[in-house]
Design goal:
Two copies of one chain form a homodimer.
Chain A (H helix, E strand, L loop, with lengths): L4 H10 L9 E12 L2 E8 L9 E2 L2 E3 L6 H13 L8 E9 L10 E10 L18 E5 H4 L8 H18 L11 E2 H12 L5 H8 L3 E7 L9 E5 L18
Parallel strand pairs in A: 1-6
Antiparallel strand pairs in A: 1-2, 1-4, 2-3, 2-7, 5-6, 8-10, 9-10
Chain A binds a DNA duplex through helix 6.
Chain lengths: 250, 250
DNA sequence: TAAATAGTGTCTGTAAGACAGTATAAA
DNA sequence: TTTATACTGTCTTACAGACACTATTTA
């Protein structure tokens, strides 16, 4: 509590003590970025029991005076060295996980968040060790989902991946995995990395073009034709892109 | 805690007391049903402060040994007299709301759930007063959103409505607002009620037919031709329905 | 001019939107 | 036969999918 005595009295009148069990509230972060055409997740390796040595999502407790969204941004900075304030990043609430036995140590309800970090497709954003003992490192998502993870974090990661893959069908959210200005080919590469498929370039351009804004600038590639640079306009794509594989038959 | 002493010791070693503030976890329910072509929400009127006399979502605390989903089903029964066990109902997690000041009495994180109740379109499911003082009653959603609600419940209700409206574009979730067997016209009426629009019957049938299973049975209406009865196959509709108004120009 | 990548044009098939027409019942 | 509702057919247009072709750069 630690609020005014009026509120305190009102509270005590309204609820029986047994009604408000102490439940710890945490955030777990699904932090994603693309490099070399492969989707990666920032994961920590657990140093202590339970699930010692296994991979887990970064995360931590929600403080008394912050929202889950604020806690997510803070934990992202603490556990990965990344600061949402200075980065082109996208954060959104994913879902909450509340199975009573999801953490064997205590009752924990976790509000999972999805974080998309921009990268130019070559190198992943740098993760520096934070104040926490375990520091985060990048792992290829589709590979890491083959093995078990700590707690219910494999489920959360899968849900986060599915949220991203689904939302990319009908929004330009994928642009958050790229710098502010990007080429059509870069954007298509993000789609191919997340959907784990190939998309025909011509039709992708035709479908996506109305939802992007041309900057007028072009890239200066080492080889090949220069590509136009776009910025994303956050809007609905209707009808959505099709996720199923297309391209040459065979 | 109230767990084994091993777990307790491990817990005490792992966390500083200040790290796990006591935060109450609740569920808030967006309970929806359709009657007379209008979407209704089951709401309670607050009997005490704060927000005395205003409309609020039904809900309550998550118990120490239940998940948020279990709590949602239990609270639905307690506050509305409805029992998920004996009803064709659909429940899914919506989102969590964690602003530190969302409840002036104490720190409360709420995991909102969306509940869809079946009705034949004529009468709404009966709501009987439960053990709680305030009992729920049905209110037209689009009208009730004009006035303020208690806490952040207007936001939650709006989010729930938007979730339903969006999901109806690309799934057969709307069928959960109807009995197990329903006619194409009934299903179209649900779409029109939630989207607050008119849809052309012929094209709606053509688009929806592949996603429904014909039972072979027909209705016996007082007037007009008998209509075929369908059951829904839960599947993705791709490409999705268009929510924008169509039909005769003007 | 060859290689590599970016971008455009176009053909075809499918399906949405519009709406007229037919079918099946009760009064 | 009229009324009311359910359902089907069809015409037009839009656009996705497939894929060939052109454009722009470096070597």
């Amino acid at each position: 509590m630690s609020r005014g005595s009026d509120a305190e009295r009102e509270f005590l009148e309204a609820y029986e003590p047994r009604d408000y069990p102490s439940i710890a509230v945490t955030v777990d972060l699904v932090v994603l970025a693309v490099a070399q055409g492969v989707l990666h997740a920032a994961l920590v390796r657990r140093g202590g029991h339970p699930f010692k040595g296994m991979l887990a999502l970064p995360g931590g407790f929600v403080a008394p005076r912050e929202s889950a969204g604020d806690a997510a941004a803070r934990e992202l900075a603490e556990e990965t060295g990344l600061d949402l304030g200075g980065l082109p990043a996208h954060i959104e609430q994913l879902a909450s996980y509340s199975d009573p036995d999801r953490d064997p140590r205590m009752r924990v309800v976790s509000v999972a968040h999805l974080v998309l970090l921009a990268s130019d497709g070559g190198a992943l954003p740098g993760l520096s060790a934070g104040t926490d003992a375990a520091s985060a490192a990048w792992h290829p998502v589709h590979a890491v989902l083959e093995s078990p993870m700590a707690f219910d974090h494999a489920t959360i990661l899968r849900d986060g991946l599915e949220r991203l893959a689904g939302k990319m069908e009908y929004t330009t959210v994928a642009a958050h995995l790229l710098p502010a200005e990007f080429t059509m080919t870069q954007l298509r590469s993000v789609y191919e990395a997340v959907w784990d498929t190939q998309l025909p370039a011509g039709n992708f351009t035709r479908k996506m073009l109305p939802h992007l804004a041309a900057t007028g600038r072009k890239t200066q590639p080492a080889v090949g034709a220069p590509a136009a640079l776009f910025t994303a306009e956050q809007r609905h794509i209707h009808p959505p892109l099709s996720r199923r594989r297309t391209g040459p038959a065979g």
